[in-house]
């Protein structure tokens, strides 16, 4: 009976935005005085249906915010994302190509830079930093999910890129009202904590 009540309390807690917010990995110390010269968005994977590739819902959410910020501030937009698996079939679009296609449909005047070789967050940072450096850019707005941003920021900072974090809020304002959205973030949060440990051991 005790374990049942404990499990129930844990489950209820995982639906409360205030509790879930406290579980989020902390963002690195914020860099002040940044004057962004570009917006960078890292992909969230592709999906395939009926032989056609498209962006995931999370990826579309990131891209919409990034393109809006780039358009608002008159900055170029770098879209970063390769493929989920190897090898890549002939004619198979990279995630960056899918993102660029979406942006050019809605914001045809926006300058889009494609980075389509990366397969993880570390490669997102390394490959994007090279493209940015070629343009003399080392200060950016970095767009991803709040759960993923701590790892992404650390990777980009390790490449000498100063970044401001931007994300769309997914947790409701009602901190103590149960939310399915809050519950859906819990697996992402635990994954990111594990990924942060792995990245510190391997890359950072």
From TrEMBL:
<dbReference type="InterPro" id="IPR051599">
    <property type="entry name" value="Cell_Envelope_Assoc"/>
</dbReference>
<dbReference type="GO" id="GO:0000270">
    <property type="term" value="P:peptidoglycan metabolic process"/>
</dbReference>
<feature type="domain" description="DUF218">
    <location>
        <begin position="37"/>
        <end position="195"/>
    </location>
</feature>
<dbReference type="Pfam" id="PF02698">
    <property type="entry name" value="DUF218"/>
</dbReference>
<dbReference type="GO" id="GO:0043164">
    <property type="term" value="P:Gram-negative-bacterium-type cell wall biogenesis"/>
</dbReference>
<protein>
    <submittedName>
        <fullName>YdcF family protein</fullName>
    </submittedName>
</protein>
<dbReference type="GO" id="GO:0005886">
    <property type="term" value="C:plasma membrane"/>
</dbReference>
<dbReference type="InterPro" id="IPR003848">
    <property type="entry name" value="DUF218"/>
</dbReference>
<dbReference type="InterPro" id="IPR014729">
    <property type="entry name" value="Rossmann-like_a/b/a_fold"/>
</dbReference>
């Amino acid at each position: 009976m005790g374990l049942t009540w404990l499990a129930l309390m844990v489950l209820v807690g995982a639906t409360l935005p205030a509790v879930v917010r406290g579980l989020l990995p902390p963002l690195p110390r914020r860099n002040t005085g940044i004057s962004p010269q570009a917006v960078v968005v890292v992909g969230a994977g592709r999906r395939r249906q009926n032989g056609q590739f498209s962006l995931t819902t999370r990826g579309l959410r990131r891209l919409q915010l990034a393109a809006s910020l780039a358009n608002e501030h008159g900055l170029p937009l770098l879209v970063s994302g390769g493929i989920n698996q190897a090898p890549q079939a002939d004619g198979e679009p990279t995630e960056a190509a899918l993102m660029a296609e979406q942006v050019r449909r809605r914001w045809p005047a926006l300058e889009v830079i494609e980075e389509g070789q990366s397969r993880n967050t570390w490669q997102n940072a390394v490959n994007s930093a090279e493209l940015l450096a070629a343009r003399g850019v080392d200060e950016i707005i970095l767009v991803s999910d709040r759960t993923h941003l701590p790892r992404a920021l650390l990777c980009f900072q390790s490449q000498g890129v100063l970044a401001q974090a931007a994300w769309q809020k997914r947790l409701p304002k009602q901190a103590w009202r149960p939310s399915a959205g809050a519950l859906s973030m819990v697996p992402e949060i635990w994954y990111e904590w594990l990924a942060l440990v792995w990245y510190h051991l391997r890359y950072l």
